[in-house]
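Good morning C.,

I know you're traveling, so I'll keep this short. The sequence:
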Amino acid sequence: MDVVGPTLLFCVFLGFWYWLSYYGMSEHRRFLVPPLHKVLDDGFLNWTNLSIMLKALWLTTQVALWGLGIAILWGMSLAIMMSQARWIEGSVWPYAVALQSFPILALVPLIGVVFDYNFNARVIVCIIISIFPIINNTLFGIQSVESGHHDLLTLHHASRLTRLRKLQLPAASPAIFAGFRISAGLSVVGAIVGDFFFRKGDKGIGILIDQYASRTTTLPRLYAATILAGALGYLVFSAFGLITRRLIGKWYESADLSG
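The tokens, ready to paste straight into the viewer:
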């Protein structure tokens, strides 16, 4: 794996950060961008502050994973039903598109009013924001199977369930897992967005980010909490990338060799 390029880019980013902290802003505004060593000292090397942020990050992680898991279950179920009957696809698809197109920030207060501002409401936000890529990719993958493969199963008088289980779902696996990866990142976004609005119960990382941003004395912790939130999104996205390579990576390699 090539690490030279990412390392150089990271060094450029650090240099720009320090330049912005000491020279790039007017003197009375430099406190808004604390240098990295102050962020590390106040946010990561201070165990009291770090433990608070890790506890909040764990809550956000639970919300994101619950929302993603339910979105995968519901999204795949809907997509499979839509692939088996045109009238189901025609009935469900417009609402799926509408849900994807509706601004999530406009829905969040309504969800809070109806479902209360707690853990369940945050999970619902994650489901709404992450379910569409799963529906779209699963349906696309199932419907994109080559007609010649369908003809072969038709000659063997395969049932609809057998066709789905042995042909359509395996062939759609690359598209399905691509949808999982997209939704994995979106679920973290949904969890943090939910934190900003739903403040009952334990604090998530989004609530801490909002609180740290409101006080100049906690700006280094704001940057630290933001770094942790970004790391969470990266880890969840990368985890599904690893799962994808483990489950269907060999399938890709064999397809390339045969081609």
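Safe travels,
E.
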